[in-house]
Amino acid sequence: MYLATLVFLLALACLTSFGAAYYLFTTRFDSTLPNADALPANVSQALEADNYDYDLCPPVNPNDKYLAYLPHSGFHNQRIALENALTLSRLLNRTLIVLPARLGRKALRYADYDSLKSYVSLSGKEGLKHCSRIPSHVTIPPECSDYWEYTLLSWEWLVDLRDIKSQQPIIFRWNLSDAWIDDCLGVSRSDTFTLKDSSRYHYRFLDTVTDASPDSHKFQEDIYLPTLVDIPQRLLQMGTLFGSSRLRLLNDGNLALRRKVRTSMTIVNPVLLHVSDLVHDKLGGYYLGAHIRLGDGQFSVHGNENVREIWWRLVHETLGFSIEDTLSLESSFAATEVSPSPPFHSIQRPIQSQVVSPSMISPNIRCRAILHSLPHLTKLNVPLYISTDVKDPLQDPTLALFLRTFPCSFFFTDFAQEATILDQLVNNYDGLPLKPFTVPFVDAIIIGKASHVVGTPGSTFSRFVEDHLWPKYHGLPIKERG
């Protein structure tokens, strides 16, 4: 009896010690966090929209069938994949399992199915929230080495999926471990049908069996949706779904469904909209917008030619300067010798809208340079808002041509006062400040509300603004691809 009591007390002491040690470990960097009640109402509401119980399993019907996929790359590639997944799950009558959006510099690169599945399952931040509370003078623990490089955010915090959810079931999954499927949905491996891709453009999905599309497309293998409808397994697991042309739809109803899904991807977060409205008004409501991506990969390699094309599209196409005058202006404003002929693309596209009149420009705008006084150059005094990934745009020689041409050029950093509310946004998931992750969305909204917008060739960010946001904010139907 005495021995049993002693063993019990020792076991209890061990458990108590372990619990205390775990508490001290996870709270060792605690500091005072902002009180949500003290924040402005719209900020508090926006934060509450992302207030989920991350460990809670959803209600499950044993007869439900599911569709899951593996997101990767930057936000706009994830958005395109979500659009395809929402469309596919509706057409296949399956509940879609949606992972949170991953934002930040450290994106999950595409890899073959097995590798990407492993990357995704290890990308959660469970048990690491103490990392967000480490003081600057403390050495960063190994488990926190990339904690600040990315964050996970609910799609519903960014876009309005209420209408979509009213017509098809969606499960928002926060636990990214492999065990979650079995533990929460009761789906075993034997009840899972997996489409394993070995390349970024492995599978394409067609809705019409008689569709004989050209063989010139980039996908390796076609799958007809009717063949997937009758798959008996409860879970249909796919890899990548990125690609605007991944779904080849001919049925009018299916096309309408995809259009509705794509239209729902407009940014609706009230805080982000509020900041963009403040900047829009500060610019006088009439301005040009340009997205100039230079910072990585192909955009760095082709930076000079992309910048030249964007500049030409603004000056020649949008403002209506003739080819001869545009060449003359380029020669005058450029710091180095320029080509004597225009870039090919810039003279192939029609002018986006009517020519800007100086009378449309607000007289209350404070510009960073002296305005053009010659009558034929006054159109260049129109405000130009530039969204770019360049760290120091005022000192970057690649952007100097824009600053010399447009004396009223602005960047997001010029609107620090309007953006102060972003400093109060904190992600409930990992405790990280959201401002660094949300500025690109505010940028997109601001240039989407511009009177005219020009983007970087090949950029999904630019395509989202030009095809989706700009038409949406100007009362036009979105432009669809694929």
UniProtKB/TrEMBL annotation:
Keyword Calcium: no
Keywords assigned by UniProt, alphabetized: Signal
CDD domains according to UniProt: O-FucT_like (cd11296)
Signal peptide: 1-21
UniProt superkingdom: Eukaryota
Keyword Repeat found: no
Xref: Gene3D superfamilies: 3.40.50.11350
Name recorded for this polypeptide: CigA protein
Provenance organism: Dendrothele bispora (strain CBS 962.96)
Lineage, uppermost ranks: Eukaryota, Fungi, Dikarya, Basidiomycota, Agaricomycotina
